[in-house]
Amino acid sequence: MKNFSTLICFLLISFVTFSQEKNKSLEDQFSGVIEKSNNYQDYKVVKKVKLYSLRKNVLDSISVLENTISTANTTIANQKKEISDLKNQLKTTQDSLTASKEKEDGMMLFGSSVKKSTYNTVLFSIIGLLVMALIILFFQFKSSNAITKTTKQKLEETEEEFEAHRQRALQREQEIRRKLQDEINKNKGA
Question: What does DSSP assign to residue 41?
Fold first, then answer.
């Protein structure tokens, strides 16, 4: 039983020492192995257990660093993919925004999209031309109406003159017929 107690104490002490060594940095562990090793001529004699323990700790540290690097690379790849997706979304959003601005700033005119300023210019030009045409037509109508009134007045005057002339011609004709009848009656009686 005494051996068993001694074995347990030894294991506990080894475990605590091993845990403390594992918590030390690799540089401290290398320094400890070199300091605790024995000298033999110009050589250092290192216990195999310490060398194996150091090797295991170095491999564990390398494995942890490799896992960290792998995780970091995965994270970087995911972030690059996310950045690429966000760039694509941003481009799509900017294209949609540009299209919306063009649509907002544009109007459909004769089947094609034009800017509002161009649309306003065309619209006001058409309105201006129509107003000018209306003014020209108004003045032409006024001029034609004045000419028509003048012509009607002259026509009435001409008709009155014609009626007066016809009356005179009718009277002359009646006078000539009377004279003719008188001459015929004179010639019959003579």
Answer: T
Kindly list the averaged pLDDT for each block of 10 residues, start to end, along the chain of length 190. Answer: 44 44 69 73 72 84 92 95 95 91 74 78 91 95 93 94 92 92 83
Rg (the chain; Cα; Å): 63
CA distance 92 to 89: 5
Tokens of 162: 């014609």
Please state, in angstroms and rounded to a whole number, the distance separating the CA atoms of residues 108 and 55.
Answer: 79
**Which residues 6+ apart lie within 8 Å of 60 measured at CB?**
22
- 48's tokens: 């195999």
Place of tokens 């030894």: 10
What pLDDT is recorded for position 2? 47
Residue 27 tokens read as 């540089």
In the structure encoding, which two tokens stand for residue 189, read together? 């009686």
CB 29 within 8 A of CB 54: yes
CB 22 within 8 A of CB 57: yes
- Written as one string, the DSSP assignment of 136-169 is HHHHHHHHHHHHHHHHHHHHHHHHHHHHHHHHHH
Straight-line distance from the first to the last Cα atom of the chain, in angstroms, rounded to the nearest whole number: 205
